[in-house]
C-alpha cells in the first residue's frame, strides 16, 4: 500500500504530519501534558485507520537520518564550559549506567522469557538502556538549575551511541564471535574515532561557513555538518552519533567569534525549527507503528501478559540501576567539588606568585610545587604566553569553584535526574534492528514498545508535577553582581577602541564616552550638507562595529575562562549581536545613500558636459 502511494498522497501525509506537530505544542500546554505523550497517543490512534495498515518505519531512518541532526542541534546549543564541568557525571550516566543496565537487564530478561538466551537478553538490555532527550525540555520548562539540564543533555547526547555499540556486540555474541576484549575495543574506538572525525569536520565546516558571506548559504551548509560527521565515522566503524555530537560541540565553542551575528541568528532559528520537527516526528512515527506491532505480536502466539510482565520488570530494573548510579555520581561529584574548593588557599598563593613574575619566567624552588607548570601545555612557544595560559587556567579553576558552590547536587537534584530518565523512540528503533531470525523477535519488539510508551506516559506525564513536588534548586535569575561585572567588562572593551581620527577631525575631539553626544551636537548644526553627514554616519558605524567586535572578543574570552555563567553570556552576546546587526543595516543604508548622491552628481555633471557640447 505504501509503495503504491502517489506523490499527492505522500505530500498530503507529510503536510498533515507537520500540522499535527504544530498543533501538538499548544495542545500540550492546554492539557498540561508533555508534547511527546500527545504525539504518541495521536500516532497510536491513527495507526488503526485502514490507510496506515502495515505501517512500519525503517529503523535506519531514525538512527542514521533523524538522530544525527537532532543530536547536533542539541550539542550546538550546549554551553561547552558547563559540559566540561560536568563531564564526569555525563560519562557515568552515558557509559557506566548504560553498561550496568544492559548487563542487569540481560540476566533478568533471560530469566523471565523462556528460551531467550543471555546474548539476546543483553541485546534487549542495550535497547532499553538509553534515555530520551525529551525529558530535558520538560526540566527546562520547570526552571530547574542549569547544571541538571546540562547533565541530562550530555547524557542524552552520548548514551544512544554507547547503547548501539553494546547492541551490535550482543547481537554478534549470538554467533559466538564476540569477547569482552572485543566489546571494550569496539566501545573505545567508537568514541575515539568519533572524536577525531567530529573535531576535524567541526573545524573544517566552521571555517567554510565563516568564509561564506551570505548567512542563508552558510545555514544551508550547516545542515550538512551532522551527516558530514556521522557518515565518515560509521565508515571507519566508530559512532556516527558521537561524531555528530562532537562536531556540534566544536561549533558551539567556536562559532561565537567565527561566524557573523546574522549567520548565527539565522542558523540558530533554523535549527530550532528543524529540531522541533525531528523530535516530534520521532514520537509520531513511533505511535503510527502501534497497530502493526500489535498485529505482528498477536500472530506470533505469545501471551500479552508476558510482554507486560517483561516491560514492567524492565522498567523497574532500569529505574533501580539509575537510582544507584545517579546517587553514586552525585556523591562523587560533591567529593570532587569539595576537594577543589579546599585548594582555594593554594590557588591564592599561586596567584600571588604569578603577580610577582614580570618577565614570563616561573622561578624554581617556590612553594607551589610541580603542579602549577602542569596546568598548561608545554608546547606554548614563549614564556610570556605560557604565563598567560597559567593565569587563564587559574581563573578557570576559580570559576569552577564558584560554579560547584552555587550549583549544588543534592538528593533532590538526584531524584529529578532519576525520574527524568524516560525511554523513547530510540528504544523501539533499536529493537527493530534485530535480525528476522532472532528468537522471540515479535515479543521483544512489543516489549520495547511497551517500555517506551509506559515510560513516556508515566514519567513524561508526571515529570513536571514531580519536579514541583521535589523542589530541586531552581535556575534563579541573573545575579546583579555578575551583571555589573559584565557591564564593566563591556565598558573596558569599549574604551580600548580609539575613535577614528577621520571622525574626530570632522566632529571635534572626543572619546568613547563622549562620541555619541558629540555626534548628535554636530548633526544638529550640519544638516545642510547630506554628503558630509553620510560620511560621518559611515565613519561612526564603522567605529561602532569595531567596538562591538572588541566587546564580543572580551566576552568570549571571559566565557572560556568560565568566569561568567552561560545564561548571562548568552544574554549579553545576544544584545551585542542585535546592536551590531542594527549598525550594519545603518551602515549599508548610509553607503547606499552616499552612492546614490555621488551617482546623481556624476549624472548631473555628464548632463552639463553634454549641454556644453
Record keyword descriptors for this entry:
613 residues, mainly alpha, 25 helices, 0% strand, globular
Brief digest:
The chain is mainly alpha-helical and 613 residues long. The protein is built from 25 helices and no strands.
Categorize the overall geometry: globular
Tally of individual helices = 25
H/E series = HHHHHHHHHHHHHHHHHHHHHHHHH
- Measured between the Cα atoms of the first and last residue, the distance is 80 Å
Determine the mean pLDDT: 83
Unreliable runs: 365-373
Largest sheet: none
Q: Fraction of residues in helices? A: over 70%
Strands, count: 0
Query: What is the CA-based Rg, rounded?
Result: 29 Å
**Percent strand:** under 5%
Structural class: mainly alpha
Describe the overall structure.
Residues 365-373 have low confidence and may be disordered. The chain is mainly α and 613 residues long. It is globular, with a radius of gyration of 29 Å. It has helices spanning 7-31, 35-46, 59-76, 80-85, 87-112, 118-128, 134-141, 146-173, 180-210, 215-222, 225-235, 240-258, 261-288, 290-300, 304-341, 344-355, 383-406, 411-419, 425-431, 441-470, 480-495, 501-507, 515-525, 530-561, 566-612. It contains 25 helices and no strands. α3 packs antiparallel against α13 and α5 packs across α6 (118-128).
Amino acid at each position: 500500500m505504501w509503495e503504491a502511494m502517489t506523490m499527492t498522497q505522500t505530500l498530503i501525509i507529510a503536510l498533515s504530519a507537520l500540522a499535527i506537530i504544530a498543533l501538538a505544542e499548544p495542545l500540550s500546554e492546554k492539557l498540561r501534558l508533555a508534547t511527546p505523550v500527545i504525539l504518541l497517543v495521536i500516532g497510536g490512534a491513527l495507526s488503526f485507520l485502514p490507510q496506515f495498515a502495515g505501517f512500519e518505519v525503517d529503523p535506519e531512518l531514525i538512527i542514521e537520518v533523524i538522530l544525527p541532526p537532532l543530536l547536533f542541534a542539541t550539542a550546538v546549543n550546549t554551553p561547552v564550559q558547563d559540559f566540561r564541568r560536568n563531564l564526569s557525571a555525563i560519562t557515568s550516566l552515558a557509559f557506566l549506567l548504560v553498561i550496568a543496565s544492559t548487563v542487569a537487564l540481560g540476566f533478568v530478561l533471560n530469566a523471565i522469557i523462556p528460551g531467550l538466551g543471555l546474548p539476546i537478553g543483553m541485546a534487549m538490555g542495550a535497547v532499553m538502556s538509553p534515555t530520551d532527550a525529551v525529558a530535558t525540555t520538560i526540566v527546562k520548562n520547570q526552571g530547574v538549575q542549569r547544571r541538571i539540564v546540562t547533565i541530562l543533555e550530555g547524557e542524552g547526547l552520548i548514551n544512544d551511541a554507547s547503547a548501539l555499540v553494546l547492541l551490535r556486540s550482543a547481537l554478534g555474541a549470538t554467533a559466538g564471535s564476540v569477547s569482552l576484549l572485543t566489546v571494550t575495543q569496539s566501545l573505545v574506538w567508537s568514541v575515539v574515532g568519533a572524536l577525531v572525525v567530529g573535531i576535524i569536520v567541526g573545524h573544517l565546516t566552521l571555517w567554510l561557513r565563516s568564509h561564506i558571506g551570505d548567512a542563508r548559504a552558510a545555514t544551508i551548509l550547516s545542515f550538512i555538518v551532522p551527516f558530514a560527521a556521522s557518515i565518515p565515522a560509521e565508515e571507519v566503524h566508530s559512532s556516527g552519533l558521537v561524531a555528530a555530537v562532537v562536531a556540534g560541540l566544536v561549533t558551539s565553542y567556536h562559532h561565537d567569534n567565527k561566524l557573523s551575528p546574522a549567520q548565527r541568528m539565522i542558523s540558530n532559528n533554523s535549527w530550532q525549527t528543524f529540531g522541533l520537527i525531528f523530535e516530534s516526528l520521532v514520537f509520531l512515527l513511533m505511535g503510527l507503528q502501534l497497530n502493526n506491532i500489535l498485529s505482528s505480536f498477536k500472530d506470533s502466539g505469545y501471551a500479552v501478559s508476558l510482554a507486560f510482565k517483561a516491560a514492567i520488570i524492565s522498567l523497574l530494573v532500569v529505574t533501580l540501576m539509575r537510582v544507584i548510579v545517579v546517587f553514586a555520581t552525585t556523591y562523587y561529584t560533591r567529593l570532587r567539588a569539595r576537594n577543589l574548593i579546599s585548594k582555594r588557599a593554594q590557588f591564592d598563593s599561586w596567584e600571588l606568585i604569578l603577580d610577582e613574575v614580570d618577565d614570563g619566567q616561573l622561578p624554581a624552588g617556590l612553594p607551589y610545587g610541580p603542579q602549577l607548570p602542569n596546568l598548561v601545555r608545554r608546547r606554548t612557544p614563549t614564556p610570556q604566553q605560557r604565563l598567560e595560559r597559567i593565569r587563564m587556567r587559574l581563573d578557570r579553576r576559580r570559576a569552577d569553584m564558584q560554579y560547584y558552590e552555587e550549583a549544588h547536587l543534592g538528593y533532590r537534584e538526584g531524584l529529578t535526574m532519576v525520574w527524568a530518565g524516560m525511554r523513547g523512540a530510540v528504544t523501539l528503533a533499536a529493537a527493530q534492528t534485530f535480525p528476522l531470525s532472532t528468537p522471540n523477535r515479535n515479543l521483544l519488539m512489543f516489549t520495547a514498545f511497551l517500555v517506551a510508551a509506559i515510560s513516556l506516559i508515566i514519567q513524561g506525564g508526571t515529570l513536571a508535577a514531580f519536579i514541583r513536588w521535589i523542589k530541586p534548586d531552581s535556575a534563579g535569575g541573573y545575579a546583579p553582581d555578575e551583571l555589573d561585572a559584565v557591564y564593566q567588562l563591556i565598558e573596558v572593551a569599549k574604551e580600548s577602541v580609539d575613535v577614528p581620527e577621520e571622525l574626530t577631525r570632522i566632529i571635534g575631539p572626543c572619546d568613547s564616552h563622549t562620541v555619541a553626544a558629540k555626534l548628535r551636537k554636530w548633526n544638529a548644526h550640519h544638516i545642510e550638507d547630506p554628503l558630509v553627514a553620510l560620511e560621518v554616519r559611515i565613519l561612526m558605524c564603522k567605529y561602532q562595529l569595531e567596538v562591538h567586535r572588541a566587546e564580543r572578543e572580551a566576552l568570549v574570552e571571559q566565557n572560556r575562562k568560565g568566569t561568567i555563567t552561560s545564561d548571562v553570556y548568552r544574554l549579553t552576546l545576544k544584545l551585542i549581536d542585535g546592536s551590531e546587526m542594527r549598525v550594519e543595516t545603518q551602515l549599508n543604508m548610509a553607503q547606499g545613500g552616499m552612492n546614490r548622491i555621488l551617482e546623481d552628481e556624476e549624472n548631473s555633471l555628464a548632463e552639463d558636459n553634454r549641454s556644453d557640447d
